[in-house]
Write a structure and sequence with these properties.
The chain is α/β, with parallel strands linked by helices. The protein has ten helices and 20 strands. The strands form five sheets. An eight-stranded mixed β-sheet has the order 4-3-6-7-8-9-10-14, with helices on both faces. Bound molecules: zinc ion. Zinc ion binds next to loops.
Length: 429
């Protein structure tokens, strides 16, 4: 897709958000059927299946099959770009994104930005984990996005946040004067808390804060608003999809508008039937653009209800949420470094490439000084993988924390049925 293609897609997305919900439903249904027909013809796992009864798949289900089972046979290998996820549900796996969808991802980012008055030339500071080594990083993006990012995006890569790093970020904001700051919800809230305590205020207010990856709980919202003195927008997405599937708007800050141009969202009961409006169920998404490795009826592990009624902002994209069930209890080390569970898991499984070693995992924290990684071994598991995982954990957690790795037959669910990726045990004295 050329630059003109990206601009056309952007205009189309900007127009679509205001279409009536029913018309949007018809549009995404047409796209969904096209993808499903492609899958039953060309994707080994789906070949010959009835498109009306395709199974719901979660990360564990994907891991039970080789990655090739989901690769479309009619598309050239160069359409596929390999990625990995540490998985918010404790199951790491590798997958592929469709290179042909990258321009759509960029257009959708610009479109979401436009909802909140972030124009293509406004400066934005992004606080994120570093891209995995050898992933190609920016080189894989469409050239227009590379140019855009180069001139407007300032990036800070971090694994954890402490008082020193928060101060670095404060300095960077003061020096670069971004209009918007983008980051993980827990990182922004922790940083806001640390800077408020130190009295390091911003000399110039931002126009907005974009928070992602974790629940924007009321205490977190309060801290971020108090520090940044700017409206917060919440984005919901999956690493597997390469773009955000939903975003909040000013009229419904606690909810999300699902972008039906990009994904189909089903809310399912435990028995697999469709939940009613207002009834909480599992969020199951179909990515409408990945033809190289289709994600069809993908169980995200998150929970939400579809609220009744529409949003007063006038957007036709249906409302969802609040979203519950994302794992987000941070770990504070004895040196007062706050580490997101997502960052630790990403560091081990994506950045250091342990995706194939482990089928399921859970990080169990006892007090502040002991962290044990429970592992259900995968095909590539061996003693040296265990030793490397232990070393890498120690490196990230820092001195004063005893890191351990223990293999188990399964990760038992909590009473709630959830399997948090970080579990905190009371300290034993
Ligand atoms: Zn709205």
């Amino acid at each position: 897709m050329t630059a003109i293609g990206i601009v056309k897609t952007l205009l189309e997305l900007n127009r679509a958000q205001w279409l009536p919900t029913e018309e949007l439903r018809r549009r995404s249904e047409a796209r969904r059927l096209r993808l499903l027909r492609h899958a039953v013809q060309n994707v080994p796992f789906y070949r010959g299946l009835d498109i009306n009864h395709l199974p719901v798949m979660d990360k564990s289900a994907y891991r039970n099959h080789p990655p090739e089972a989901f690769a479309a046979s009619n598309l050239p290998a160069q359409r596929r770009m390999e990625k990995a996820t540490s998985g918010s549900t404790g199951v790491p796996f590798r997958f592929e994104v469709d290179r042909a969808a990258l321009p759509v991802a960029f257009a959708s980012q610009l479109s979401y930005d436009s909802w909140i008055g972030l124009r293509p030339f406004d400066r934005c500071l992004r606080i994120a984990v570093p891209p995995p080594p050898g992933s190609g990083g920016l080189r894989m993006l469409p050239w227009l996005q590379r140019v855009h990012d180069r001139f407007t995006q300032d990036r800070i890569s971090i694994w954890d946040i402490d008082a020193g790093r928060a101060e670095d970020i404060w300095r960077r904001i003061e020096a670069c004067r971004p209009e918007f700051v983008f980051g993980y919800t827990s990182t922004l809230a922790t940083m806001a808390d640390l800077l408020l305590r130190r009295g390091l205020r911003l000399s110039r207010s931002l126009r907005g804060v974009i928070a992602t990856a974790e629940t924007l709980s009321p205490p977190r919202r309060r801290l971020i608003e108090q520090y940044f003195q700017a409206p917060i927008t919440n984005r919901y997405g999956l690493r597997e999809f390469g773009w955000f599937s939903a975003q909040s708007c000013a009229a419904s800050p606690e909810r999300f508008h699902v972008n039906t141009e990009l994904a189909v969202c089903e809310i399912l009961r435990p028995d697999g039937s469709l939940a009613e409006d207002g009834e909480t169920g599992r969020i199951v998404l179909t990515d409408l653009w990945n033809y190289a490795r289709p994600f069809i009826r993908y169980d995200t592990g998150d929970l939400a209800a579809r609220p009744e009624g529409s949003c007063s902002c006038g957007r036709g994209f249906p409302l969802l949420g609040p979203i519950d069930g994302r794992t987000d209890e941070c770990l504070t080390t004895p040196a007062n470094r706050v580490i997101r569970p997502g960052s630790l898991a990403y560091y081990l499984f994506v950045y250091n490439r342990h995706t194939d070693d482990v089928r399921h995992y859970q990080i169990v924290r006892e007090g502040n000084r002991r962290v044990t990684l429970l592992v259900v071994p995968g095909d590539a598991w061996n003693e040296s993988a265990a030793a490397r995982l232990r070393d890498e954990m120690s490196k990230l957690l820092g001195p004063g924390v005893e890191a351990g790795v223990r293999t188990v037959a399964e990760i038992p669910p909590e009473r709630s049925g959830k399997r948090p990726i970080i579990k905190t045990l009371e300290e034993v004295h």
